[in-house]
UniProtKB/TrEMBL annotation:
Keywords: ATP-binding, Hydrolase, Iron, Iron-sulfur, Metal-binding, Nucleotide-binding. GO terms for biological process: iron-sulfur cluster assembly. It comes from Bacteriovorax stolpii (Bdellovibrio stolpii). GO terms for molecular function: 4 iron, 4 sulfur cluster binding; ATP binding; ATP hydrolysis activity; ATP-dependent FeS chaperone activity; metal ion binding. Coiled coil: none annotated. Binds and transfers iron-sulfur (Fe-S) clusters to target apoproteins. Can hydrolyze ATP. Homodimer. Belongs to the Mrp/NBP35 ATP-binding proteins family. The lineage of its organism: Bacteria, Pseudomonadati, Bdellovibrionota, Bacteriovoracia, Bacteriovoracales. This is Iron-sulfur cluster carrier protein. The keyword Iron-sulfur applies.
Amino acid sequence: KTGHGPVGQNKKHVAGAKKVIAVSSCKGGVGKSTVSVNLAFALKNLGLKVGLLDADIYGPSMPMLLNQRGAKPGATPEKKILPIDAYGIPFISFGLFINEKDPVIWRGPMLGGVLNQFLFDVAWEGLDYLIIDLPPGTGDMQLSMIQATDIDGAIVVSTPQEVAILDSKKGLNMFNQVKVPVLGMVENMSYFVPDDNTSKKYFIFGEGGVKKAAEELNVNLLAEIPLEIALREGSDQGKPYMNEKKYEGRPVWNAYMQLAK
Ligand code: ADP
């Protein structure tokens, strides 16, 4: 069945999800997974039903971020994979199907089949949004992942320091090539907010790097997400920041709610 995306032709619609959003980055370590997870909870905070798909085969961090390491997904009678529930968000991760100690190189041959299963054989149900955390980079593997799928929009995450016009351009080109609309860029780690003084901004990695790149490349800058210790701690503890109402109103919280809207 072809979907509702801009170019239906060979793209398969992910059953059970009204909209599919892909989160990508040109480099690793810029906060792509953190953004995927917290965007999902920000959308949930708006009353939407959201699912998460961790397709980052190099560093599937979602089981840790959602405190579900070692969880074993079940199957439906129709042999579809049942997503794991994490704080009201159904998710599935490549990391749940591999031995974390296996070298990355063994994962290659498994990819084709497993990724297809991930995208089309998971029993998603009644989702307003499915957020896909893509592997970092713009290679053939990423391309083949996104070209078979009916993706409604893509987000490119960068940090002010790591953003490079050439890389970002490659990222945008990858999505253009397969007719996936780019919603815009997200600047992560924009500035530091001390816990005791949320009005003072420290631009540790320089100011406005991604904004400049977005302007140059003619794409939207969707949000500037500050650095905050509690965000990193929450991730390490498997307690997503945007699921903790106590952070409501803080700069990181506000940036994610702006992104969700
Ligand atoms: P990627 O998915 O791009 O490899 P991660 O999401 O795993 O990157 O983030 C890398 C590290 O940076 C993690 O330890 C994460 O907790 C931390 N991190 C990401 N964004 C922020 C932020 N805005 N403030 C503080 N720590 C962050």
